[in-house]
C-alpha cells in the first residue's frame, strides 16, 4: 500500500480510467495488489494429459465457459480444450460451448465473438444457459440442486473458470461455472438467500468451511464435471496462475497462488473508500455494485461508522437486462427504507437477483454509496445510491455525508473485486 503518491491516482471507468484527486488535507492511501514478479515462470499453456483418458468414447461433450461479465480469457482457454478434444477424436459437431450466464441475460453474438473469436463461433455450437431447461440432481443440505439439461446429458462435461475473490463462494472458479452459472432458478434462489449471505462462513476470500462453496462443489460433482481449466489474473489482466485437471484440485491450487497476491496490508479503518471496478463488471449496476459490497462488508472493517464508498461505474445497461438484474432493480426501487426490504427478504427469501438487493442493502444501512459516471443517474437513485457526474462532485457529496472529521482518511482500491485489503500488523513496517 502506498500513501500520498506523487503520480495522480487513477481508477477504471468503463474502458478507460479517471484520476482521483481528494480535497486538500485529506490523507490518501492506495491498495493495489503487487505484480507477481517473484513467481516462478508459468508452465506452457496446455491441457493436462488426463483429459485424453476422459474423452475415450465421448461423442457429446459440453464445455461450460464464463459469461461476458467475467474477465476469464476464454479465447485462450477454449481453443486448448478444443484442440485436445480434436486430437482425441471427438467430432466437431459433438461439442457444445455453453455460456454460464446463470440468471443473467444471454450472451450476445458480439460478445460470443469477443469471448471466443470468430473462427470458433463460426465452427461450433455456442449457446447460452437457459435456467428454465434444467434437470434435478436431488437435494443437498436443504438446497435443491438443478443443472442445465445439456450438462447433465453430456458424455463429458468440462469448464473454464477465473479464480478471484468472491462474496459468497470465497473464490470464484472451480465448479462454480457449472454449479451456479448453469443452475436452475431454485438452486440460485436457495444458495443466494439470507441463510447463506448471513452465514459467517460465507465470506469474501474464505474457502475453508464455506457453506456456499460446499454446495458449489457437491452440485458440480453430481452434474458430472470431471475437468476444469482455471486461471488467475493480475491487475493488468495477465495470467499469473493456471491449472487444469480435477476441478477441486485445480481450484485449490490456483486459490493458493492467488491469495497472497490479492492481499494488501492497509492502515484501516478509513472514512472514504474509492472502489474501482471497470470493464467488464461495470456493464450494469448489479455487477458494478460488487465493488461496493466487497469493501463495505469486509470482515476487516475497512470503513469507520458512516464512512462513504465512491464507486466509479458507467453502467451502460442500467441495472442490467437479465431476470436477476431486473428483480434486483424492482426490489430496490419499491421500498423507501432499506431495513424494510432486508427484513422482508429474511422473512420471505430472495428471488434470483435479490441477493444483490440484500447484500447491497446491508452496506447501505451503514455506508452511503456514491456512483460516479453512471449513464442513467435515475437507476442509481432508484437503488438508494447517489449519482455524481465526476470525482470532484463525488468528494463534495462525501463531505456532506461524512461524520465530522478534520482530515478524512481515503483508501483508493483501483481493482476492488480483485483486491483483499487487510489490516497492517502492528509490527509491520
Structural features:
alpha/beta, Rossmann fold, 34% helix, 16 helices, 21 strands, single chain, 429 residues, six-stranded mixed β-sheet, seven-stranded mixed β-sheet, 2-enoyl-CoA Hydratase, Chain A, domain 1, 2 domains
List the helices and strands and how they pair.
Elements: E1 2-3, E2 9-13, E3 16-20, E4 27-30, H1 50-54, E5 61-66, H2 74-87, E6 95-100, H3 109-116, H4 118-123, E7 125-128, E8 134-140, E9 143-148, H5 149-153, E10 156-162, E11 165-166, E12 170-171, H6 176-179, H7 185-191, H8 194-197, H9 211-223, E13 225-233, E14 239-245, H10 247-262, E15 263-266, E16 270-275, H11 285-296, E17 303-312, H12 323-333, H13 338-348, H14 354-364, E18 369-372, H15 377-382, E19 386-388, H16 391-401, E20 409-413, E21 420-423
Parallel strand pairs: 4-20, 5-6, 5-10, 6-7, 10-13, 15-21, 16-17, 16-20, 17-18, 18-19
Antiparallel strand pairs: 1-4, 2-3, 8-9, 11-12, 13-14
Q: How many H/I helical runs?
A: 16
Please give the number of β-strands. Answer: 21
Our estimate of the beta-strand percent is 25-35%
Distance between the termini: 11 Å
Rg over C-alpha atoms, rounded to the nearest angstrom: 21 Å
Give the neighbour order of strands across the main sheet: 1-4-20-16-17-18-19
The profile of the biggest β sheet is:
7 strands, mixed
**CATH level-two architecture of the largest domain:** 3-Layer(aba) Sandwich
For the residues shown, what is the average pLDDT? Answer: 91
Structural class of the helix and strand makeup? alpha/beta
Low-pLDDT stretches: 37-41
CATH superfamily of the largest domain: LarA, N-terminal domain
As a percent range, the share of helical residues equals 25-40%
Looking at the structure, the CATH topology of the largest domain is Rossmann fold
Which of globular, elongated, flat, extended, rod-shaped describes the shape? Answer: globular
In total, the number of domains comes to: 2
CATH class identity of the largest domain? Alpha Beta
